[in-house]
Amino acid sequence: MKHSHFWIAIGAIVGFSGVYAADVNGDAQWIKWAGLAGLAICTGIGLLHGVMLRRAIKTVATVSLVILNGCGDPDPNAWRTQDNSEYAFVLSQGVAKDHLKAPSTAEFPSMTDKNTLVAKSGHEYTIYSWVDAQNSFGAMIRTEYTCKVVQVGEYDWRFVDFQFAK
After folding, report:
1. Is 117 helix (H, G, I), strand (E, B) or coil?
2. What does the alpha-carbon distance between residue 96 and residue 103 come to, in Å, rounded to a whole number?
3. What are the domain boundaries of the chain?
């Protein structure tokens, strides 16, 4: 890449990053103007390095499209339609460790183990699984457990219930 293309690309990144940050932060005008100033300055440096105007515009447009395509707002409600069984399974392991005498000795199965099941109902996940861990006498014991967790936000989970099998 020629130095002139480098400066034009940097200008596009700085410019559109500033405009995007301004929109995300409640239309902060100083961020928007700083981004646009960065775009103008870096594009000017690129033009001074000898790039033809048409090539400069094409480069800025291409980089801008790449940036804008990557800056789309993710759907904040996407978690509502996703199956997060794997994450619920991992959470259940943490809850199980909290109930053990020797949590550092815990060994869990994979989610595909024949004796493991994750049942989903709406946003509630019920996990049926097992853990091998030392008891208070130091013997490794396999204990089955049931854990219920509910997803209430994209990264927000609530513990509902946990029971070791009797």
Report:
1. strand
2. 8
3. 3-70, 79-164
